[in-house]
Design brief:
The protein has 381 residues and is mainly alpha-helical. The chain has 17 helices and six strands.
Length: 381
């Protein structure tokens, strides 16, 4: 017969005459009784409990068992267990313990992107937008930021929906990076509300305005204007463009992946009128755009009478509109511009009449000075 885990001993006390000693939980415990019958009854009950539940069940504190049962009931409606709840909370505690201040996470993200080959301009813009968020939450760690706080901050920005979504995208990038570094358990931006973007009306330059702008441009900026108007490169892409990427023999401009907004390489066809504008300025290598581009282009627009009310992305939108109207090939234009055919169709279809499109692609150095007035007359007809 197995030896009992409980021992009944006489105890010298005025009232308590017997003691039950046991070592079930790994340390000696005592329970006192007034009579031997009470002690024996206690021992029998404990032996049955030990037999049914095992040593762990007997030593499990009653208060902890009750708490576990109550909390398990609370989790039932969600289909979760105590183990799920503990796993979730432990991940949160680990994230809080390992987390870092927002500015540190931002600095690490930018350094990571720079090391991955991201452009200087991209890293700069990332720092500006995320830095604005960090300034709004001083002395906060990454793990302490909630979805509600991000949502409220984004909604407070006095910006257009498209720009607000750009901030949201960069914050999502920051917290996704933070998750990989175990600075937070989840990405709070993932569940935030994306601002509804309403497509605004595309504004383009008239044929006369384009011709006048090119006539008013100085020698340093003329290639910039011509490439924007007749090749449709984005401003940032032209700013990063080198003359060695312009092949006038093959009539192609190479936009490198690291210089492209979509991070994909593409080749843009040089139309005959663009070749005529670029030929006098052709170099073997060197930047196409001058260092003081912003100031020089503002002067050009003033001379052309286009200093105020300059349409957003005027050159790129003009290129897309006139190209689609002249060549009627949305797929080819999408490849040229680095967009999808759906975007091309949505933005540029039916903005330009075919006769104006034909005149647009005739704008070249040999006719601008002579025909600028006729351009204006025809465009207004």
């Amino acid at each position: 017969m197995a030896k009992s885990a409980f021992r009944i001993k006489p105890y010298k006390h005025p009232r308590l005459k017997f003691v039950v000693r046991s070592k079930v939980s790994g340390k000696w415990e005592r329970k006192f009784f007034t009579t031997k019958v009470e002690a024996q009854t206690f021992v029998r009950l404990k032996e049955v409990e030990l037999l049914n539940q095992g040593r762990e069940g007997v030593t499990f504190p009653t208060w902890l068992r009750v708490m576990a049962e109550q909390q398990a009931e609370r989790l039932k409606p969600f289909g979760k267990t105590l183990s799920d709840a503990v796993d979730f909370y432990v991940r949160h505690l680990e994230a809080v313990t390992n987390s870092v201040p927002l500015p540190q996470a931002m600095a690490e993200l930018i350094e990571n992107r720079r090391g991955s080959g991201a452009s200087v301009r991209y890293c700069y813009d990332l720092g500006i937008r995320i830095g604005r968020f960090c300034h709004a939450f001083p002395d906060r760690s990454v793990a302490e930021i909630s979805t509600a706080e991000v949502d409220a901050w984004l909604a407070s920005l006095p910006l257009a929906p498209v720009t607000r979504n750009t901030f949201r995208r960069d914050l999502r990038t920051l917290f996704a990076f933070a998750v990989t570094r175990h600075y937070c358990a989840d990405n709070p931006v993932a569940q935030t509300t994306k601002a509804k973007e309403v497509d605004g009306e595309i504004e383009i330059l008239t044929v006369a305005q384009t011709a006048l702008l090119l006539e008013s441009a100085n020698a340093e900026t003329l290639p910039f204007w011509a490439i924007g108007a007749f090749a449709g490169l984005r401003r940032a892409e032209i700013e990063r463009l080198d003359w060695k990427q312009i092949d006038l023999e093959s009539n192609l401009i190479e936009v490198k992946a690291r210089h492209s907004k979509t991070a994909t390489r593409r080749l843009v066809t040089i139309q005959p009128n663009l070749a005529a504008w670029l030929l006098p300025f052709q170099k073997i290598r060197g930047p196409v755009a001058p260092a003081n581009l912003r100031k020089l282009t503002e002067d050009d627009r003033e001379r052309a009478g286009l200093g105020s009310g300059w349409p957003q992305n005027a050159l790129r939108h003009s290129f897309g509109s006139y190209h689609l109207a002249r060549f009627n090939d949305a797929a080819a234009l999408a490849l040229q511009m680095g967009n999808s055919p759906e975007v091309i169709f949505r933005h540029y279809r039916q903005l330009v009449k075919p006769k104006d499109a034909e005149r647009y692609w005739q704008i070249c150095p040999s006719v601008v000075g002579e025909k600028i007035l006729s351009f204006g007359t025809q465009a207004e007809a």
